[in-house]
Amino acid sequence: MYKKVFFKFFIKPFILLITGMLIKGKENIPKNEPYLIIANHNSHLDILAIMSMYKSSELINVNPVAASDYFFKNKYLKWVSLNLIGIIPINRKIKREGNAHPLDEVYRKIEEGKTLIIFPEGSRGEPEQLQKFKNGIGHIAKKYPDLKILPIILENAGKALPKNEALFVPLIIKIEIKEAFTFNCLNLDIKNFVQKLEENFKKDNNE
Amino acid sequence: MNILNESIFTTFIVIFSILIVAFIIIKYLQQKNDKPYIELFDRTKSWFYMILIFAFTVFLNNIIAMIFFALLSYLALKEYFTLIPTRLTDRRIIFYGYLVIIIQYYLAYIQWYELFIICIPVYLFLLLPFRQILIGDTNGFINNTSKVQWGVMLFVFAISHVAYLLMLPSIDFITGAMMVLYLIFLTELNDILQYVCGKSFGKRKIIPKVSPNKTVEGFLGAMFLTTILAVVFSYLTPFTTLEAIGAGLIINIGGFIGDVVVSMVKRDVGVKDASNMIAGHGGIIDRVDSLTYTAPLFFHYVYYLYY
Predict the structure, then answer these.
(1) Do B88 and A170 touch (CB under 8 A)?
(2) pLDDT at A139 over 90
(3) In this structure, is the dihedral angle defined by the CA atoms of residues B155, B157, B159 and B160, taken in order, positive or negative?
(4) CATH of the domain at A166
(5) Which domain holds residue A107?
(6) For A23-46, what is each residue's pLDDT tens digit?
(7) For chains A and B, what is the number of CB pairs under 8 angstroms?
(8) A29, A184, A191, B114: which could join A145 in a potential S-S bond, CB 3.0 to 4.6 Å?
(9) Partner-chain residue, chosen from A20, A159, A174, that has the shortest CB–CB distance to B88
(10) Mode of pairing for the β-strands spanning A173-177 and A148-155
(11) Which of A159, A167, A171 sits opposite B78 (nearest CB)?
(12) Residue ranges of the alpha helices (H) in B112-240?
C-alpha cells in the first residue's frame, strides 16, 4: 500500500520528469508468468528505474533482491527498504546459518510467483563498468530451470548518481530489455552459465 | 491572461483551424490510398497537444510561462548531455549547467538586461574552468569544458531569449507575448514548410553531408512562404511591412541553420532522434533546434528596432 503510493506520487514523477527513461525492447517482457530480472548495477537509481517501467498496480509483485548488511544499516533505511521499495533481504556476509540457506527467502518468493530483480554483480561497481558476476544467480537458475530470465541493460544511471556520490546530475536513463531465456535452453553447468550471462552484458556494453 | 488578448486569441483559432484541416486531409488520404499514415497522424496529434500545452502555459501567467521555458531548456539540455560522451569528472560542471537555467530565467523575469546577456557567455564561461581546476582532471579538459559551455549556450542562453521577449514592456498595445507567439508560430511553420516543400518538389540537395533530406527547393519554397506569412501575421508585432519581410527572412534562414546545427550534433554522435519523448517528432532537441537560432536573432532584431 505504502509502496504503491510512494511510487505513483514520488518515484515515477521523479524518474519520468527529472531524469527520463528511454526503453528499448518492451515487447520482450514475458506476460502472465513469473520471471527473474537480471541487470547491471551501478547506482541506486537502477532499482527505481526498472520498477518505474511497471504500472503502480503491478509493482506489488516486483521485488528487488538486496543486501541486508547494507540496507538494514539503520532503522530508517530498513523501514524504507522493506515498506516502500519492498526488498527481499539477503545477507552477503554470512554464508550459512544452521540449515538455513542465504537464498531461502529468494526461493520462497519465486515459488509465490513474484517477479524478482537481481543484480548478479553483487554491489554497485564503477560507473559504466561491468564487474564479475557472482555465482548465486546460477544456483537460482539451476533450481528453477524453466524460470524465464530477463536481462536488462541499464546505461547512464551510474553517471547520474554513482556510488559514494551525493550529487545527483540528471541524465536520461537508457534501458534495454533483451530476450528472455531459461537455464534449460542454454544447457550449461552453473559456472559456464554465469559466464555466459556476463558475456551477454559485456558485448552490449562494448557496442 | 495573455490568451484573452484579441490578436493572440485570433491567432490560436487560426492555428487550431489549420490543425483540424490537417487532420481532415490525413483522414481523406487514408481512405483514398488505403494506407494508415501512422507517422503523419502521430506527428499531427503531437502538434495538437504541444500547441495546447503551449497556449495554456505561456499565455496564462508570466511566472508559469517562465517555468515552461525553463523546463524546456532543462529537458533539451538533459537530452544533449545524454547524447554526448562525457567523463565522470564532468558531473560537477554539468550540474552547474543545469543550475544556471534558474538564474538565467530569473534574470529574464526581472528584466535585468545587462546581466541576462552576459551571465552565461561571461560568468559561466569563467566559472566552469575554475571548477575544473578544483577537480583536477587534466585529461580532456578543453574538450569537455567546451562541450558543456556550448550546450548551455545553445539550449539555455539562446532559448531564454524567448522568455526575455515575453517580458518586454508593450509598445502601443503590442505586448511581448504577441511577439513570442509570432516568433514561435513562424519558426515551427517554417520547419514544416521546408519539409513539405522539400518533399513536394525537392531535387537538389543543399548540404548532402550533414542533412541529406534538405533541398534547395525546400529552402527557397519555405523562404517565400514564411516571408508572406510573416507579413500576414505582422498584426502581432509593431513591424512595418518591410520590417516584417526582414523578420520572415531572419526566421527562415536562422531556423534552417539551427536545424542543421543540431543535425550536425546528432550526426557526430551517430543517432537520428535525440529521444522518443514526443511521438512522431523524436526528442525535445529535435523540436527546439530551429528556435536556438531564431530566438536570439529575432530578439535582437526587435530590440534594435524598438527598444
Answers:
(1) no
(2) no
(3) positive
(4) 3.40.1130.10
(5) 2-206
(6) 888 888 888 888 899 999 988 899
(7) 34
(8) A184
(9) A159
(10) antiparallel
(11) A171
(12) 113-118, 125-135, 141-152, 158-167, 176-201, 216-232
